[in-house]
Amino acid sequence: MNPGLTHILFISIALFFIGVFGFFTRRNLITMLMSIELILNSVNLNFIAFNKYVWPDKLTGLFFTIFVIVIAAAEAAVAIAIIINLYRNYQTIDVEKVEELKY
Predict the structure, then answer these.
(1) Is 103 inside a domain boundary?
(2) For residue 10, what are the domain limits?
């Protein structure tokens, strides 16, 4: 295996587990959203690394990365709208303090 690929995959694994740890240990919705973004960025790093080192003549990794970036932007917009709505109704963005969801 290429040493450059190994280093990039190590960074990607570190980003992924930092994101998972942040998602499961934090109760603030904004930090949970940032943790999900870290997880998605680690996936993007994997796509780019494999595209560069394993299949350098194909562009599938780049297309998947652009697709994940678009999905992450839409997810962030929807999540921020939900966070703003929760803050307006409950005056908090702490997950444990919001006990009841109404439509």
Answers:
(1) no
(2) 3-97
The total number of structural domains in the chain stands at 1
Per residue of the chain (103 residues), what is the pLDDT tens digit? Answer: 778 889 999 999 999 999 999 999 988 889 999 999 999 999 999 999 988 888 888 888 888 899 999 999 999 999 999 889 888 888 888 887 777 665 5
Q: How many residues does the chain have?
A: 103
Residue 46 is assigned to a structural domain of this protein: yes
**Whose CA is closest to 9, among 70, 63, 53?**
53
- Quick check: is 57 in a domain? yes
pTM for the full model?
Answer: 0.83
**What tokens appear for 49 in the block?**
């690394």
Q: What is the secondary structure of 76-103 as a DSSP string? A: HHHHHHHHHHHHHHHS--BGGG------
| 29 falls within a domain | yes
